[in-house]
Amino acid sequence: MQFFMKFVAIGKQLGYIHRDQTEEIIMLYFTMYKNELNRYWKSSNQKSITRSMDQLMELFFYGLVGEKQ
Questions:
Q1: Smallest Cα–Cα separation from 41: which of 29, 32, 50?
Q2: How far apart are CA 38 and CA 22, in angstroms?
Q3: What's this model's pTM, rounded to 2 decimal places?
C-alpha cells in the first residue's frame, strides 16, 4: 500500500488526481476495484479476462470519462 499512496501523492502533485480526494476515499475506491477484479478473475475464464485487462486498467486509471481526445 505504501507504493500506492506514493503513486497517489505524485498524481495529486501533477494534477492527475483531484487534490480534494481524501486518502480514505481513494483507498476505498482502490479496495473496491481490487476486490471486484479478484472476484471476476476467479469466476471467469482467465483467457477472456486477460484480453480485457487493458480495458480494465484504463477504466481504473481514467474512469468512464477518460481523457479528452
A1: 50
A2: 24
A3: 0.69
Nine cell digits for residue 2:
505504501
Nearest to 59 by CA among 48, 68, 67, 69: 67
Using only C-alpha atoms, the chain has a radius of gyration, in whole angstroms, of 14
Q: What element of type H or E holds 41?
A: helix 23-43
Q: At what angle do helices 2-14 and 23-43 cross, to 10 degrees?
A: 120
Separation CA 26–CA 8 (nearest Å)? 8
CA distance 28 to 12: 17
As a whole number of angstroms, the distance between CA 2 and CA 54 comes to: 24
Check residue 37 and give its pLDDT: 84
- Which residue is it, cell 497517489? 8
